[in-house]
From TrEMBL:
<dbReference type="InterPro" id="IPR000644">
    <property type="entry name" value="CBS_dom"/>
</dbReference>
<keyword id="KW-0129">CBS domain</keyword>
<protein>
    <submittedName>
        <fullName>CBS domain-containing protein</fullName>
    </submittedName>
</protein>
<dbReference type="InterPro" id="IPR051257">
    <property type="entry name" value="Diverse_CBS-Domain"/>
</dbReference>
<feature type="domain" description="CBS">
    <location>
        <begin position="7"/>
        <end position="65"/>
    </location>
</feature>
<dbReference type="InterPro" id="IPR046342">
    <property type="entry name" value="CBS_dom_sf"/>
</dbReference>
<dbReference type="Pfam" id="PF00571">
    <property type="entry name" value="CBS"/>
</dbReference>
<feature type="domain" description="CBS">
    <location>
        <begin position="71"/>
        <end position="128"/>
    </location>
</feature>
Length: 141
């Protein structure tokens, strides 16, 4: 099965200038944990609910601060013609729960572990990714 068969193709995005408040509100409104950040239709990063908490609120940034101050620029992406198994392995290798799907740097979809678990009937793919993504990390102390 191809990732294009299970990905969400209507992806809400934000710009680098979007405030943390706007991004958090959008995540709540559409019930997601991340939003791709685009500039001139090109994917430049992704902001997650965790980014907002750990890099924003915990660092005492104003809710009016731009997501460009906290976004993850080192992003892993997939392509719509990759298999679900390839996507699951990529997510496991990089310990990520959401994978933006791009074509020529433009976001054309996004897939989450939940999408793989619910829409891919082989289920083993979600188990592969979830085992690796959910590996406990050692706390920095």
């Amino acid at each position: 099965m191809k990732i294009a068969d299970i990905m969400t193709s209507e992806v809400d995005t934000c710009t680098p200038q979007t405030s943390l408040q706007e991004a958090a509100s959008k995540m709540k409104e559409i019930n997601v944990g991340s939003i791709p950040v685009i500039d001139n239709d090109k994917l430049i990063g992704i902001v997650t609910d965790r980014d907002i908490v750990v890099r924003g609120i915990a660092d005492n940034l104003s809710l009016d601060s731009a997501v460009s101050e906290i976004l993850s620029e080192s992003i892993v992406t997939g392509s719509r013609d990759m298999s679900v198994e390839e996507a699951a392995e990529l997510m496991a290798d990089h310990q990520i729960r959401r994978l933006p799907i791009v074509e020529k740097d433009k976001v054309v979809g996004i897939v989450s572990l939940g999408d793989i678990a619910v829409k891919d009937k082989s289920y083993g793919n979600a188990d592969i990714a979830l085992d690796e993504v959910s590996e406990p990390a050692e706390p920095d102390k």
